[in-house]
Design a protein that fits this description.
Largest sheet: 2 strands, antiparallel
Strand order of the largest sheet: 1-2
Shape: elongated
Strand content: under 5%
Number of strands: 2
Length: about 150
C-alpha cells in the first residue's frame, strides 16, 4: 500500500503539472480587452501559486521515493506526506485550471475537466487525504502519546 501511495503521489503531481500547462497555454492565448488574460493579476497569481505547489510536491515525492528505495526505515512518514501533499496540489491546480478557462473549463469539450475529475477521484481511492493525516500524526507523535 505504501508503494501504491507513492506511485499515486507521483501520478497526482503529473496531473497537477498537466492541468497547469493547459491553463497557462489558455491564459497566454485568450485575449480580453486587447491583452492576454495571463497579464491580469486575478489570473496569473493563482497560476503561479499552483506552479510553486507543483514544484514543492514533486520534490517531496522525489525525496520520499529516494528514501523508500535506499533507506526505507528512515522517515517512513514521508510517503503519506507526499501522498497528501500531491493530492492537495493536484486538486488545487486542476481547480485553478478550470477557473482559468471559465465556463469552457467545465464542459466536456475541455481537457481540463478530465484533469479535475482524475485529481478529485484518484485522491479518494485510498480513503482521501484526511485519512493520511492520522497516519502522519501517529508516525511523528505516536511515541510521544504512548
Amino acid at each position: 500500500m505504501r508503494e501504491w501511495k507513492l506511485l499515486m503521489a507521483a501520478a497526482q503531481v503529473g496531473i497537477a503539472d498537466g492541468a497547469l500547462g493547459h491553463a497557462v497555454d489558455y491564459a497566454r492565448d485568450r485575449l480580453a480587452f486587447g491583452a492576454p488574460i495571463a497579464t491580469y493579476q486575478g489570473v496569473s497569481h493563482p497560476l503561479v501559486d499552483s506552479h510553486i505547489a507543483v514544484v514543492g510536491a514533486r520534490r517531496l515525492v522525489w525525496k520520499a521515493a529516494w528514501l523508500a528505495n535506499h533507506e526505507p526505515d528512515v522517515e517512513p512518514h514521508l510517503i503519506p506526506m507526499a501522498f497528501t501533499n500531491a493530492c492537495r496540489t493536484a486538486v488545487q491546480a486542476a481547480t485553478v485550471a478550470v477557473h482559468t478557462q471559465g465556463g469552457l473549463g467545465v464542459t466536456l469539450e475541455s481537457d481540463v475537466q478530465l484533469f479535475f475529475r482524475r485529481a478529485k477521484g484518484w485522491a479518494a481511492v485510498a480513503g482521501g487525504r484526511t485519512a493520511e493525516l492520522g497516519v502522519i500524526a501517529d508516525a511523528l507523535y505516536g511515541a510521544a502519546r504512548g
